[in-house]
Predict the structure of Ribose-5-phosphate isomerase A.
Amino acid sequence: MNQDTMKQRAAEAALDYVEDGLIGVGTGSTVNHFIDLLATIKERIDGVVSSSEASTARLNEHGIPVLDLNIAGELALYVDGADESNHQLQLIKGGGGALTREKIVAAASRRFVCIADESKLVERLGRFPLPVEVIPMARSYVARELVNLGGTPVWREGFVTDNGNLILDVRDLEIREPIGLEQEINAIAGVVTVGLFTRRGADVLILGGPDGTRTLTAN
Ligand SMILES: O=C[C@H](O)[C@H](O)[C@H](O)COP(=O)(O)O
């Protein structure tokens, strides 16, 4: 079974968490499956807050109403993918560069259901290069600070985020204390968002695999 089919299975299982009202959606190939499925029950929901221009375009194609977060207020549910999750449901996100808006919408939601194929579950975060969104003029400065933290930052050249910023992908980081590292990197001048989701990790993780799905919940 290929990885995309496992992502689709996780997205299908997430439909069970959808209730009436407003929901938030993330970005990426797994969420794209979820958006396509959401279209089949769009009469049940009042609208969606989107975390990226790409997801907004897909929602628009399906005729699903997209709302501004400032008008929506608190959301009951946020559904998004991840690049990695540990067993505490702390995440690395931002492989698609949408981390800042994703973190905002996740923070504004009561429940975060993360959907992924089973390869995303790891014992320790950090095999996936950690994305960091930076203000363009701060790129070199932030990169030097990340080297001081033991990382090897690589500029994602040619990529501009929906917010007009740049991404540094940081390799070689020993992520022993994800909560502390999220705070430390976020405190560097010029950093907009680090792709560690620890203070607001997932509440539920649905993993698609060859034999179906399994669900982990945060303690
Ligand atoms: O910026 C992108 C997001 O954080 C995605 O949720 C993440 O990269 C996972 O994407 P995919 O579902 O395509 O594996």
About this structure: The chain has a mean pLDDT of 96.
